[in-house]
């Protein structure tokens, strides 16, 4: 027998608890009014929403930073956005071409990508070949190598192309720099339309963007996971010439569900096989993640 109390005549069902809308504030990094965006599940959809808010093409957006309008590689938007984060979109500025002669094996570039078809420079090593070319800057998108367009290539593919270029033979890079506001170029006062530094979120919840499937609200990574991801990111730079915090986080996530080093290697091959990680890299990563766990207690 149903023991539930009878409903009063005319009573209605209580409304289902609605999930709050996740609305994010955004600006163009060189200066614009503030826009509001929602309803995206991956980076491509995020760029489309930002482009729609400001009446530009999604392909105009090179990358986004969180809570800072500056070209700050420590503030790059990856696969997670704090629920109170402010999104600044850096759009295409001037195009430039530079000629480079590879006199050493390494150019001194670290490459990352925006998750939507553009690879760009995340770091330039001091004293390197590229460091001696003043026209090349952190934040520049690499559009072509020797007139061969690399738009749509992932960062590890671009890094591999640059590594394989022959020594002592000049080559040309076509770069696109992000558009900058006046106050980011010279010592000028900020106008009313220039963006300001946004308040950094203190919350622990983030929106996790996914290449496939819906975005989910999750707790921010633990201190152990964050430390492990930083170590993996350092190894990615050492072995592959790329930096990718989201890729590093995916590697750490794979390790968390692996019973041992061999299971971890199989998991990486199954989930991230396209990167073709060398065996020595996998061994070092497994050890680094273990060290991070030990170091954080």
Automatic annotation (TrEMBL):
<dbReference type="Pfam" id="PF25082">
    <property type="entry name" value="GIPC1_GH2"/>
</dbReference>
<protein>
    <submittedName>
        <fullName>GIPC PDZ domain containing family, member 3</fullName>
    </submittedName>
</protein>
<dbReference type="Pfam" id="PF25083">
    <property type="entry name" value="GIPC1_GH1"/>
</dbReference>
<dbReference type="InterPro" id="IPR036034">
    <property type="entry name" value="PDZ_sf"/>
</dbReference>
<dbReference type="InterPro" id="IPR001478">
    <property type="entry name" value="PDZ"/>
</dbReference>
<comment type="similarity">
    <text>Belongs to the GIPC family.</text>
</comment>
<dbReference type="InterPro" id="IPR017379">
    <property type="entry name" value="GIPC1/2/3"/>
</dbReference>
<feature type="domain" description="PDZ">
    <location>
        <begin position="97"/>
        <end position="164"/>
    </location>
</feature>
<dbReference type="InterPro" id="IPR056814">
    <property type="entry name" value="GIPC1-3_GH1"/>
</dbReference>
<dbReference type="InterPro" id="IPR055349">
    <property type="entry name" value="GH2_GIPC"/>
</dbReference>
<dbReference type="Pfam" id="PF00595">
    <property type="entry name" value="PDZ"/>
</dbReference>
């Amino acid at each position: 027998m149903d023991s539930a109390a009878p409903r009063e005549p005319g009573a209605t069902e209580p409304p289902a608890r609605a999930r709050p809308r996740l609305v994010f504030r955004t600006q163009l990094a060189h200066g614009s009014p503030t826009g509001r965006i929602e309803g995206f599940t991956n980076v491509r959809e995020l760029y489309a929403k930002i482009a729609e808010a400001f009446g530009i093409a999604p392909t105009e957006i090179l990358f986004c930073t969180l809570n800072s309008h500056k070209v700050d590689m420590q503030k790059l938007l990856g696969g997670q956005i704090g629920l109170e984060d402010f999104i600044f979109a850096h759009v295409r500025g001037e195009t430039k071409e530079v000629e480079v002669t590879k006199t050493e094996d390494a150019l001194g570039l670290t490459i990352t990508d925006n998750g939507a078809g553009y690879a760009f420079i995340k770091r330039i090593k001091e004293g390197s070949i590229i460091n001696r070319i003043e026209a090349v800057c952190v934040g520049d998108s690499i559009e072509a190598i020797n007139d061969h367009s690399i738009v749509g290539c992932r960062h590890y593919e671009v890094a591999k192309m640059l590594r394989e270029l022959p020594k002592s033979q000049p080559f040309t890079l076509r770069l696109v720099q992000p558009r900058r506001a006046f106050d980011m170029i010279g010592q000028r006062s900020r106008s009313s339309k220039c963006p300001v530094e946004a308040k950094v979120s203190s919350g622990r919840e983030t929106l996790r963007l996914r290449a496939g499937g819906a975005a989910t609200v999750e707790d921010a990574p633990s201190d152990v996971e964050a430390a492990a991801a930083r170590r993996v990111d350092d190894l990615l730079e050492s072995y592959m010439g790329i930096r990718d915090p989201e890729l590093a986080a995916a590697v750490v996530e794979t390790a968390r569900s692996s019973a041992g080093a061999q299971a971890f290697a199989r998991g990486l091959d199954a989930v991230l096989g396209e990167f073709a990680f060398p065996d020595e890299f996998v061994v070092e990563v497994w050890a680094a993640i273990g060290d991070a766990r030990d170091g954080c207690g």
